[in-house]
């Protein structure tokens, strides 16, 4: 049976490929999971429509990410934390803390977009990458400072 793949299927092909598979494999696995469409003229038209909509949505998301990266280019955040002896933090500054600080500044960023190798546990200045889209990212300066009134 001829099908058009809607997603990448390991060992079979990539999105948009037209491949020949066993009828049972297509009927029982690929089609119910929306991984493929029958390679008929109607299926080809449906694939083209969904592909056009996906490209439009991806282009829109990419433009929005580029605009956000341009706005965030020179952003510097200060996060206040309680410290103990030797200037070490009680707890740590996490991706969620950085995302919350960005939201307070008016930037809509999910914590999963903030790229930290490990939580920040010492006072200081850090450069933190924020991945906004597939290959669009920006770098922020994050100051971890002692919370006033905390000893």
Give an overview in words:
It is a single chain. The protein is of the alpha+beta class. The protein contains 3 helices and 9 strands, in the order E-E-H-E-H-E-E-H-E-E-E-E. The protein has 2 domains: 2-64, 3-Layer(aba) Sandwich (Ribosomal Protein L9, domain 1), CATH 3.40.5; 70-146, Ribosomal protein L9, C-terminal domain (Ribosomal Protein L9, domain 2), CATH 3.10.430. The protein has a 4-stranded mixed beta sheet. Strands 2-1-3 form a 3-stranded antiparallel beta sheet, covered by helices on one side. Strands 5-7 form a two-stranded antiparallel ribbon. The chain is elongated. It starts with a strand and ends in a 5-residue tail after the last strand.
Domain tally = 2
Please report the first level of CATH classification, the CATH class of the largest domain.
Answer: Alpha Beta
Average pLDDT works out at 90
The CATH architecture assignment of the largest domain turns out to be Roll
State the helix count: 3
Strand content range: 25-35%
The value of Rg in angstroms is 24 Å
Return residue spans where pLDDT drops below 50 for at least 5 consecutive residues.
Answer: none
Instruction: Provide the spatial order of strands within the biggest beta sheet.
Output: 4-9-8-6
Proportion of residues in helical segments: 25-40%
Number of DSSP-assigned strands: 9
Largest sheet: 4 strands, mixed
Query: What fold name goes in the CATH topology slot of the largest domain?
Result: Ribosomal Protein L9, domain 2
Helix-strand makeup class: alpha+beta
Please give the structural blueprint:
Blueprint: E1 2-5, E2 18-20, H1 23-30, E3 36-38, H2 41-72, E4 76-81, E5 88-93, H3 95-104, E6 114-115, E7 120-122, E8 124-133, E9 136-146
Parallel strand pairs: 4-9
Antiparallel strand pairs: 1-2, 1-3, 5-7, 6-8, 8-9
């Amino acid at each position: 049976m001829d099908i058009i793949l809607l997603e990448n299927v390991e060992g079979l092909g990539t999105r948009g490929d037209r491949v020949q598979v066993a009828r049972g494999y297509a009927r029982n696995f690929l089609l119910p999971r929306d991984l493929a469409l029958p390679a008929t003229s109607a299926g080809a038209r449906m694939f083209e429509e969904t592909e056009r909509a996906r490209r439009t949505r991806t282009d829109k998301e990419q433009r929005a990410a580029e605009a956000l990266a341009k706005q965030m280019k020179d952003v510097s955040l200060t996060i206040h934390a309680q410290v103990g002896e030797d200037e070490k933090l009680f707890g740590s500054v996490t991706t969620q803390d950085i995302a919350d600080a960005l939201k307070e500044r008016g930037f809509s960023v999910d914590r999963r977009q903030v790229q930290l190798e490990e939580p920040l546990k010492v006072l200081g200045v850090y450069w933190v990458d924020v991945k906004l889209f597939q290959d669009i990212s920006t770098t922020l300066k994050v100051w971890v400072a002692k919370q006033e009134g905390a000893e």
